[in-house]
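writing this on my phone so excuse typos. first protein, seq and then structure
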Amino acid sequence: MEILSVDYYADNAPKRFTDSLKQTGFGVLEIHPIDWQLIEDVYSEWREFINSKAAHNYYYDKRTQDGYFPMDISETAKGETARDIKHYFHLYFPNGRYPKEVSNKARELFDKLFKLGKTLLQWIDDHMDPETSKKLHMPLVEALSFDRTLFRVLHYPAIKGDEEPGAIRAAAHEDINLITLLPVASSPGLEVYSHKEDKWYEVPCKPQSIIINIGDMLQEMTNFEYIATKHRVVKPEGEAQGVDRMSTPCFMHAKADVYLSEKYKTADIFLDERLIELGVK
């Protein structure tokens, strides 16, 4: 499985990026417009906040899905019984709660990732097979919702060895949304599954790159022309003791009333079903 690395500024970037998505469900922007120092600052600041007592003042709201999700509320991937070894904070703009204990940098990073994600969706629209494109009820960039797009700040604690049997940092899953933008995490561990080879591959974690993958909403909208690839987060072999992991995925979501497929008449119906399956709603 070859996930292509792309220079955002290259003339062939849109085609190379969309070819990689079509072939593997993933693409990597090795060169991109986001200042990496901003990402490092968010990792550093939020690592401290999310592990403090202050995070619990923003305990998540089941109705709005914003706020802090502690370890005992962490998702259980579809088909799994053990909860993932992670805790995280959900940020929605402009309406979700934003902790007063941190700077504005996470908000700034979200704005930059959202803008980049919108461009990438336009690339997908522009390079989609015309027959697939005709079946969409609207172009992807028009389906995109700002206020439903989720910015998640994730902390995976260092693995100690006394975790629940079968639990890993993030069990095998597909994302719910259209596409996900994932700045490379503070440590490796992301793997993608190849159905053809029945094998897990490490996703290239080139320093300062951004990983993009297809979500189930895009898969539904395109009648499986674009495949959402299963992925997971594991403790890499040989990882030193005491190494934790910070990650800030931006999940680009469709508007609530966007038609996905015959099975899922709206994005809202699909999202609700998945949140219930994950045990967080």
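second protein below, same order as before
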Amino acid sequence: MPVNRSTFLRRGIAVVAALPLLTLAACGYGSKSTADNAKEKVAAGSSKIDGLSSVKIGYFGNLTHGTALVARQQGLFQKELGATKADYQIFNAGPSEIEALNSGSIDIGWIGPSPAINGYTKSGGTNLKIIGGSASGGVKLVVNPKKIKSLKDVKGKKIATPQLGNTQDVAFLNWIADQGWKVDANTGKGDVSVVRTDNKITPDAYKSGAIDGAWVPEPTASKLVAEGGKVLLDESTLWPDKKFVITNIIVSQKFLKAHPKAVEAVLKASVEANKWINANPDKAKAAANKQLATDSGKALPTDVLDSAWSSIQFTDDPLASTLNTEAEHAVKAGLLEKPNLKGIYDLTLLNKVLKADGASTVDDAGLGTS
């Protein structure tokens, strides 16, 4: 029986908090990064947008949020915002970012599709809009090759996902169901043991033998490979054209209505970042890694960085049809009541930016505001 949406979100947070190892990651959860970046200095003579003193931007310390990492490292957000200061908050999980958006602690954020869907449906469609795409792909099932040699060997094993009901968790539960296996979505118990584990902890859990593999985003997947893991499945192979949304851009509806010029400025920076990433992949991954090092205190090793970056596609297209499919997967897993996603997208400003840049506009798959 599907659980109540608010109960589902509370359980997701509680399950993660209950894992003993996760206390090690608590210090970074939703923490604000204050490191200085010369490229982010407010240019002399620039003016504020909409009279705002700042715009608060959230993102994760994952390579799948590479658009935000690169845009920040290259000073693109600050460039487009003029004298309005770009402030940042770094998150490790979607629910905390949605809470920050709802409370006004951030105005705009990079986030996965499942938290965006949950946030939108929980508020009755009143709290957020998806205003752009950011990335596709970058999710893999990595396993211990000594214990798991084929897909059928996953049955009976302990496989980690980042969090109950997060994007990868929903994808793995859907894949399990497609194999004809049974798992209780809330407890993770069944033909496969689904172990919800923070991405920061997953490599250590793998090394200790606490898990036999993980369905995780980059760079965690490549970190596991560096520890001797084997990629058993790339999630992109399960999707048409090997494309599916892994990262969206969301905004508070209140902020969007009050400050469209500021939102447009952030979208200009995002489009510029993706354009630069795709034209300069080596420089871009170095920039993303530099920002990760600034945010976390540690850069990724070259082998992990190269493997992870090559599996992610950066795109302004939100791939809206795949968001709808991911919502259907959550419903099938019993983690979400059938949602009404009509109106979750507002791509008006993004398409304005794309047209001005001479690029093709993108589609909301019938889930837009008009």
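The chain has 14 helices and eleven strands. thats all i got for now
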